[in-house]
Structure formats: C-alpha cells, structure tokens
Design brief:
It is a single chain. The chain is mainly alpha-helical and 146 residues long. Helix content is 77%, strand content 0%. It has 5 helices and no strands. The protein has helices at residues 2-15, 21-45, 51-78, 84-109, 115-134. Helix 3 (51-78) packs antiparallel against helix 4.
Amino acid sequence: VFSSYIAGMQYCRHQLKHQALKKIMRQGIILTQASSMALVISSLITALPPLYLLIGLMMLIAFGAASTSTPLTRLAIESSPAPMGRKIAIYSFSFSITGVFGAMILALVSTDHTLPMALLGILGFSGALFLFLNNYQTLKLSSKTL
C-alpha cells in the first residue's frame, strides 16, 4: 500500500509533462472514489472481504490519493505568506490530527468488519471531491510551479 502511494506521487510527477494538473487530480479523485465505493460494496457483501481484494483496493485508493494530494499539499503550503517552518508545522499537525480522529472513530465503532473503514474513507473522499468540484475554476494550479 505504501509503495502504491509512492507510485502515485511518481505518476503525478511524470504525467505533468503530458497532461494538465487539474486533469491528473480529477483522475486521482475518480480512482480513489471508485475504489472506495468498491470497498464499501465488498464490505456490504461480506463482513471481511478476501485479503487480496482488500489489499488491492487499498493500493488503488493510495495511488489515487497520492496523485491528488501531492499538488494540493504544495498549494496549501504556498497559500500563506507565513514562514515556511510554521506552515509545515501547521500542515503536519492537521494531517496528524485527522489521522488520530479517524482512528478514534474506527476504534469506537467496530474492528470486526471493514465497512466502518470503507465508509469513513468514502466520506472523506466525497468531501474532497465536493471541494474539488466546487473550487475547480479557482484552483491556481500550474504544472510549471510544481
């Protein structure tokens, strides 16, 4: 799964030479959303999907998330005139606290099934898709700046 995340970042970097950044991000969001939906469906069919399916879908989610989050991370960090150390600290804190709250939610629900994890993922990626589509025209993304 971690190697898929790295591959997604490399894919984004490579594709910048051939495609617009917004198109790469849209593809990543669609891949992540579709994989999350497949994970939800497989979790509804059986409490614990086969390991190969679970790992495969998680790899697709990681790949799509990496190809989307790489440019958004840079955009978020460069959106403020604050000193770089402060921006990185706030970004790292936000990233970590999101993971902590997600883990707390999953721990409170149930660890016997993959459905809560799948639903949390679909909720998060749906939020990202909503924000991306509503701000698509105003995103100042240029492959020249990445």
